[in-house]
Design brief:
The chain is an alpha+beta fold and about 350 residues long. It has 5 helices and 19 strands. The protein has 2 domains: about 200 residues, Lipoxygenase-1 (Sandwich); about 110 residues, Dodecin subunit-like (2-Layer Sandwich).
């Protein structure tokens, strides 16, 4: 049974709706997979004559933002130890024109309208092949980043831990409709990410069911980017923790729950990826499901010494928010609710 927290017990009012989390790799280069991926944002134009026009202009602005960001990203790619793509573009008009065409050919892989009417777009362009950047200039892979991409940390078992750096922490939830997911394939699966968090002043919950999406720049310094109700968002849902404010938190319990579309976790191949700047990804799979329980306590982030934090895999399944709350002694009050 889905549960909502009673807002009357809050010690502070949360600012709802922000979209600061990067989607998976967005704003980066994946040398191993061979693509550059960029996100952009566009806000509704005040001079729009209708809601439809406002959406169209916001989407267009988000794409333009992507093109600008991709140009900046690509310009910094090295051609050799001393030369970048930007240097080549300055020195050669043909290369400048070809790079511009490469960027304009980037594909939109995700476009989401956010709660304030703005748009968030993610675009991707290949590094290799006849359509890739390497066909224009002889790019040199970033060896350090390549090594990070091939040295992921996998938390297989309950109790497995990994240390975290004091930096922005992006927790990405996704699931795959592969060959083992014949039941889920083609369905509109509403799988949500959320968290219980405890600071030194109060405790609270954040997820789509409770209509709490947080704020990255202000209290509570955690945000959820979207509520993907169809399962079509290629980058899933993202929960971002502001690394500059991590010391505000005593603990953060990250969870996911099935809102609708399927009946059990065994129909999915769910995976959570924890991303930190300059560190290998941490992978947690939502495996070993408990039949009939729609909520999974994925992991807990908590202090590991005075200035260090760690993440520990939980992998426990519950019938809802209240049962999970009781298991981890959060002490919130709940009542039944739904999104719509």
């Amino acid at each position: 049974m889905c549960k909502l927290k009673k807002y009357a017990i809050l010690f502070c009012t949360l600012v709802i709706v922000m979209a600061n989390a990067s989607a998976g790799l967005a704003n980066g280069i994946d040398w191993r997979a061979g693509f550059v991926e960029i996100e952009g944002y566009g806000v509704p134009a005040e001079q729009a004559h209708s809601a439809a026009q406002a959406r169209l202009l916001a989407l267009r602005a988000a794409k333009s933002d992507c093109y600008r960001n991709m140009l900046e990203m690509v310009s910094g790619v090295k051609v050799d130890s001393k030369t970048t793509v930007k240097d080549m573009m300055v020195a050669n008009d043909t290369i400048r024109t070809q790079v511009s065409g490469f960027i304009k050919g980037a594909q939109v892989i995700k476009a989401d309208m956010l709660y304030d009417g703005s748009y968030r777009v993610i675009m991707r362009a290949p590094l290799y092949g006849i359509q890739g950047l390497q066909a224009i200039v002889n790019i040199v892979p970033d060896t350090e980043q390549f090594n990070l991409e091939t040295s992921r940390v996998i938390l297989d078992n309950t109790g497995d831990t990994a240390n975290l750096v004091i930096d922005d922490i992006n927790t990405n939830l996704n699931w795959y409709q592969g060959s083992k997911n014949k039941v889920a394939a083609g369905k509109k699966v509403d799988l949500d990410i959320g968290c219980f968090y405890e600071t030194y002043q109060h405790k609270d919950v954040m997820d789509a069911l409770n209509k709490q999406f947080g704020d990255y720049k202000n209290t509570p310094y955690i945000s959820i980017d979207i509520d993907d109700r169809s399962g079509n968002a290629q980058s899933g849902e993202n929960l971002l923790i502001n690394g500059q404010r991590i010391n505000n938190f005593k603990r953060i319990l990250i969870y996911s729950y099935i809102y609708k579309g399927i009946n059990q976790w065994s129909e999915l191949d769910g995976v959570v990826t924890v991303k930190q700047s300059g560190k290998p990804d941490i992978i947690i799979r939502l495996d070993k499901p408990d039949a009939g329980k729609n909520m999974c306590a994925i992991a807990v982030i908590e202090k590991n010494g005075d200035s260090q934090y760690k993440i520990t895999k939980l992998g426990d399944y519950f019938s809802g928010h209240e049962a999970m709350d009781n298991a981890y002694n959060w002490g919130l009050n709940w009542h039944q609710g739904r999104k719509d």
